[in-house]
């Protein structure tokens, strides 16, 4: 039996995906990593960069995205944006970016990495219920490093700190979502997530605990 080209061509046109659909499928990665930088770090991943790079290198097709927020804390370059305003905006920004990605790529696995103020906004968004149902389903691992919301005694705490950060969770606090996928790193000498006096300690989490963080994330993926 012979088919007329006039019949075949319309059929092919109907079967082919629209360009925007094809682009959407191609852009969805099996694993997508969000990194939220620390206060004063320039736009990008900040100290989470090395862990992002390691995870990308270990998972074929994985992609990443930096959280776009002020990361301000009184520095001149921020003008009038205070730390308080920055972390409030940052919490809203991370919620928006993660929810948007999860809506577009529901089959992707999501990893959240937050450092210092970036850890605070990640904590507030994840534990505070700021993500959509689709996002919570997609999120497989959540890492806080040096977050000011740290409080000793939570099930996911890692490190030597036995006190709390300057924006600590209240006594008796419990994360509002699955805490088995969280790790929060803080050492005693850190003046931001704990009550120490060594600012250098605050920058050590990626180098000191990096391999441990990567192993934990991989165990959840």
UniProtKB/TrEMBL annotation:
Instruction: Please give the SUPFAM superfamilies that the UniProt record associates with this protein.
Output: alpha/beta-Hydrolases
Respond yes or no to whether keyword Signal is given for this record.
Answer: yes
Signal peptide bounds: 1-15
Query: From what superkingdom does this record's organism come?
Result: Eukaryota
Q: Name one GO molecular function term.
A: carboxylic ester hydrolase activity
Sorted alphabetically, which keywords does the UniProt record give? Answer: Disulfide bond, Hydrolase, Signal
One short Pfam family name for this protein? Cutinase
| Protein's name according to its UniProt entry | Acetylxylan esterase
Look up and give the organism this protein is from. Lachnellula suecica
